[in-house]
Amino acid sequence: MDIDDLRIVDAVARSGSMSRAAAALNMVQSNVTARIRLLEDELGVQLFTRHSRGVQASDAGLRLLSYSQQIGALFREAVEAVKEDGVPKGTLRIGTTVNSVRPKLPMLAVTYAKGYPRVELSIINGTTTSLIDQVLENRIDGAFVSGPVLHHELDVQPIGFERLVLISPVSMKSLDELSQVENLRAIVFAKDCSYRQMLEAVLDGMGLRYQTLEFDSLDALVTCITAGVGVTILPDALVDGPWKDHVAVHTLPPDRAQVEIVFVRRLDRHPSSTLNAFLKMVR
Predict the structure, then answer these.
(1) What is the model's pTM?
(2) Which domain holds residue 60?
(3) Is the same domain home to 50 and 110?
(4) Helix, strand or coil for residue 270?
(5) Which among 193, 94, 82 has a CA at the least distance from the CA of 143?
(6) Which of 130, 149, 158, 168 has the most CB atoms within 10 Å of its CB?
(7) How far apart are the C-alpha atoms of 52 and 56, rounded to whole Å?
């Protein structure tokens, strides 16, 4: 088994078809099929389950894929490390949650692009959990997420703290009024969002019953609040927007009012000048 075998396995798994994988790899289908069969014979396991619509990775195939992705990322990193000359270049993929860093990233990206025109910068949005998974899987180079983060494979660099506030319709004057709201709704992001977990902890701690409305964008979430639909928790830095006069902002209890922002990356990744230049600009 070599890296070309892993590249073929990855292409077949992604496409779900030997023929589509062959086209993507610019190979003859019979060669792809033969390489997969030879690899299965060598390993003594079935990597793919064949069916009428194509193929699907078996449990053994999925286990191999996880290593294939890590090896592929390590191979690309080795090439980049060899070419490293101190001048930022290549690709840089940075993840961020909805936090106080996020509003600054567009301007930072513009400044970075002007300073380092040989770098192709991508900003990926997500939740803390999903972004950490992407860092661990080498799909992104690093991410700004909510702390604390404890993981033996990650380098965790503190960026700062942000103050959290509860956002409600302007008609609600204090947190005490939450208990009087009929059909209270918690307006939240995905289940692994740290702000959602904080909001649920606050409402549960007050013994309140509520329904959950889930959205995938900040604009949709805020629209619901301004329309009087429910409440949410956000960093106070994000409240200073065009809708700040259309919501009420409430101070949270001290143990719920602050969260740390950290930057995470894999410990075993070579610290490239491309990433170091970006982090220096952020700081």
Answers:
(1) 0.67
(2) 3-82
(3) no
(4) coil
(5) 94
(6) 168
(7) 11
